[in-house]
Amino acid sequence: MAMNIESQGGTGVARLRVKSCPKRRLIAQDILAEIKTSDLGPGDRLPSMKTLARRYSVSIRTVHQALEELEGLGYLRKFHGAGTFVLGRHQPMTPAETVVVCMESQAHTFSELFGEIMRHLHERQMTAVAVEPSHSDVSTTLLRIRHSGALCYLLHASVSFPFSVFTEPAMGCPRVIAFVSWHSDVEWPGLFRVLSDFPTGGRMVADMLWERGHRNVLVLGTGTDEVLIGQPSARDFFAGVSFAEHWTEVGGKWQFMRSREDASCNSGVTLDAERLLKILSAEDAPTAIVGTRDVEVWQAQQILSACRPSLLSRIERIGYYDTPWSRSADPPFSTVSLSLPAMADAAMTILDALRVGRDPPRKTILIEPTLVIRDQNISPRRGDIAQ
User: Fold this and answer.
1) Alpha-carbon torsion angle 145, 147, 152, 155, nearest 10
2) Is the peptide bond before 331 cis (omega within 30 degrees of 0)?
3) What is the CA radius of gyration of the chain?
4) 312 and 304 in contact (C-beta within 8 Å)?
């Protein structure tokens, strides 16, 4: 394989004469030679990709590929917003490049968030210690991990999570990025929040249904949801509160139907089919179904498909969280997405600041959800929907 790298005296411009070696490889070898001869040492920042592209008379994409190759070999590392730096080869992993990811890796929505987070950490060549928050002794696990010197904790947890563990003196004021919602009043200087804007999500659903002419809806959820929907204090972590408040303000009617856990069902929940059909067949029946989660709507759709397809074709359905239950249903139904990629990106902005020793703002970052409208081929019966 033949290659030559020529410099034009005094100009600082290197030009590649290529016979059979890809340009990205030549660039990578040229930069590697500078690292090995100490022209570039650990901690040095490389010129921008635009500058390197001009230097080698190639595209930015080619430079990007060359730097990726060296990063994969352990010579370089890209820091978002800061640039690409020389590491020297086989630099050992430090505790400050480790984070503890404490979130459910199995539940649909949160497994997707877990995947987004892991992708970002992989891109940054960081190590993740995964902890399931549903573990029976999660507080002990987290207290033991404190000795690892991990940079921070990335956390999503339910109401039952022992949030107070982070204020234990033994934890030493850890840095925690809390996702989706935060069900605790516990505060400390190292707490950063990246939360879903649940009040906005609830209003989005109410506005969409009202604009489409619905005036009477059936809300599906758990027994806990039935209690929370009437508690303004739950507004920030349960979209049902703002939906019910806004729907009532505009003059809409609603009633709640409770689901129950059912381990024998593949969805994990079940609805009283007889009661559902009775509600939806009444004289002044609801013309839409709203689920506090996607799974309850999916269950209702299964019942209607099997028992009363004519009702299915005239009742609009919308869930919350945008999971495989809404995407893969037959037909798929509308839902609210928590915008998980945006949530992960926001968290990485905080993480990148912590990595370089900056103190991010303590303000809560609210990620606005989005409506995912899917055509359900609804043909309402005359008089079902207000004109």
Assistant:
1) 20
2) yes
3) 27
4) yes
Q: What is the distance, to the nearest Å, from the Cα of residue 319 to the centroid of all Cα atoms in its chain?
A: 18
- Going from the N-terminus, what domains does the chain have, and what CATH number goes with each? 3-86 (1.10.10.10), 95-189 (3.40.50.2300), 198-338 (3.40.50.2300)
pLDDT tens figures, 273-312: 999 999 999 989 999 999 999 999 999 999 999 999 988 8
CA-nearest of 167, 131, 125, 161 to 148 is: 131
Cα(289)–Cα(315) distance, integer angstroms = 7
d(Cα 158, Cα 134) in Å, to the nearest integer? 8
pLDDT digit string, tens, across residues 343-371: 999 999 999 999 888 888 878 999 999 99
Token pair belonging to 58: 């190639």
Residue 98 sits at the vertex; the CA angle it makes with 86 and 196, to the nearest 5 degrees, is 110
**Sign of the Cα pseudo-torsion (312, 313, 319, 323, in order):** positive
Is the pTM here over 0.85, yes or no? no
Alpha helices in 250-385, H assignment, sequence order? 273-280, 294-307, 309-312, 324-327, 340-355
Which residues share a beta bridge with 370? 337
